[in-house]
Amino acid sequence: MNWTDLKNRADNRATLATLFSQNDTRAQDYSVRHGDMLLDFSKTHIGADDRALLLAMAANAGVEARRADMFSGVKINETEDRAVLHTALRNMGDDDIEVDGEGVMAGVRETRGRMAEFATAVRSGVIKGQGGQITDVVNIGIGGSDLGPAMAVLALAPYCDGPRVHFVSNVDGADIADTLHGLDPATTLVIVASKTFTTIETMTNARTAQAWMGEVVKDTGAQFAALSTAEEKTAEFGIAPSSVFGFEDWVGGRYSLWGPIGLSIMIAVGADDFDAFLRGAYDMDCHFRDAPLDENLPIWLALTGVWNNQGCGHSTRAVLPYDQRLTRLPAYFQQLEMESNGKSVAMDGSSLEVNSGPVVWGEPGTNGQHAFYQLIHQGTRVIPCEFMVAKSGHEEDLAHQHELLVANCLAQSEALMVGRSLEEATGIMAKRGLTGAELDRQARHRVFPGDRPSTTLVYPKLTPFVLGQIIALYEHRVFVEGVMLGINSYDQWGVELGKELANALTPVLRGEASEEGKDSSTRMLLDYLRS
Ligand code: F6P
User: Fold this and answer.
1) Are residues 334 and 440 in the same domain?
2) Residues 15 and 120 reside in one and the same domain
3) Ligand 1 pocket member 196 (CB < 6 A)
4) DSSP-based three-state secondary structure for 77
5) 254 lines ligand 1 (CB under 6 A)
6) What is the CATH number of the domain that holds 523?
7) What pLDDT, on the 0 to 100 scale, is given for residue 206?
């Protein structure tokens, strides 16, 4: 990869003001559209030659061939020898996809049908609890078995017309205790969501929920469902096969909300809206697969990321949805992006020459504006910002509030780009009557350096279809960035060491094993906690 050329170009980048002054149609030229969605990347420092270089880098990295491999079931997760086929879970086409010579679509459709039947039966009261109609559903899972459904159920609140859905993830007993508090075990359905069905947090919480329900309910198995690739383990847990929804190892945890792991979403919004969610993702899949690189939304989202991070050296990016219902989206993207591309070893075992994927963080606007935007505008580090906003909200009677929301979103990217010079700040403060040294001192605090990059994604309205498009857009951006880095975006070995050490420390904390061999800091902390 031509990382040196990219860094050279980024080091010699023109300012945003210059780029805009040189091109009257920059906004149109440096934005891409798909359907009713618009991605504006004109407020990044990418110029005409940089654009050509970035596109050439994507092409040279083999993004197109790798993309075809992913969609067709080639085992691109090479360290685990697995295909990467979350796209099959939302494939609405007639084509089959083969893994190891076997078609997968019949199984996908069958499971989707079973999920719809189950969700509809729960929603309509055909599947009941001991105490009657299910009023509450508790999804117990962590990471990809929690973040996606939790994010989507909140995002789709206007469509939620089923039982209340709750999410428990943390092994901290506070999480399950607070969630179960006030629920009626006789009308609660517990969904144990775990790809492996071995994750310590999930299995511990599942047993706690089972004991809680067992105090009241005779047949707890009838009020439990399981979502997992390990169907024999779900049987050991006592869950009836009719309430088990299996999937294959070619679905990664953080890519799994499209299939059985999305059951809680389906129960919340109903099978038709879940179907619309899948259709939105499929629509983005088709766009990603078919649109030329230069007109492709996921490609450009990825290339702005590569430019900002590997080119300019900005190692974090803020995701800033101006959409309160996307409150959990930054956390979801943290797993999606950081677990996928937080790696320093390339597929061939060599070390990366450039930064791995960025630190992703964020909060919805306008809340963030009154918290951390100070640093984004005037801090010493440059933080590329990814703004997101809907053309319209669901609250038609509160359209004036939506206007304020949109104005704030646009104002932030404008302020980041335009900034405020010392001269302008001096003029403002002079009008307020300041003079001399005090005028100079006060004006300096009010300078905004500007020239700070951002992208803005505009979507029509946060419907199930649009949410599906947005999530798939980001999944594919992660894919493209991963291919350009030459890494495997689909394993997660980096989470293993901590798990192993936690398993070894639990008996030490209980006094059942010795702390010998532990470093002195860990020993001191153990002693302090046990004392
Ligand atoms: O520890 C990381 C991880 O394996 C994630 O990749 C995954 O989403 C999460 O744990 C939960 O795993 P499971 O669904 O197998 O319980």
Assistant:
1) no
2) no
3) yes
4) strand
5) yes
6) 1.10.1390.10
7) 98
**Same structural domain for residues 126 and 188?**
yes
233: Cβ below 6 Å to ligand 1? no
Give pLDDT tens digits for 123-168: 999 999 999 999 999 999 999 999 999 999 999 999 999 999 999 9
Ligand 1 pocket residue status of 202, Cβ below 6 Å? yes
Query: Which atom of ligand 1 is nearest the CA belonging to 199?
Result: 16
Task: Give the CATH number for residue 220.
Answer: 3.40.50.10490
Q: Would you say 481 and 302 are in contact if contact means Cβ atoms under 8 Å apart?
A: yes
Question: Which of 275, 304, 325 is the last residue in one of the domains?
Answer: 275
3-class DSSP assignment, residue 172: coil
Number of domains present in the structure of the chain: 4
What is the extent of the structural domain holding 348?
Answer: 3-73+276-419+453-487
Give the pLDDT band (50/70/90) at residue 2: confident
Q: What percent of the chain has pLDDT over 90?
A: 99
Q: Rounded to whole angstroms, how far apart are CA atoms 79 and 148? A: 24
Q: How far apart are CA 263 and CA 115, in angstroms?
A: 7
Q: Which of 201, 337, 339, 363 is catalytic?
A: 339
Catalytic (active site) residue 339: yes
Give the separation between CA 504 and CA 125, rounded to whole angstroms.
45
Residue 373 sits in the same domain as residue 481: yes
HSE-up (13 A, CA, CB side) for residue 454: 25
Rounded to the nearest angstrom, the gap between the alpha carbon of residue 21 and the centroid of all alpha carbons in its chain is 35
Q: Any catalytic annotation for residue 370? A: yes
Amino acid identity of residue 339, one-letter, is E
Q: Looking at 243, 275, 307, which one is the last position of a domain?
A: 275
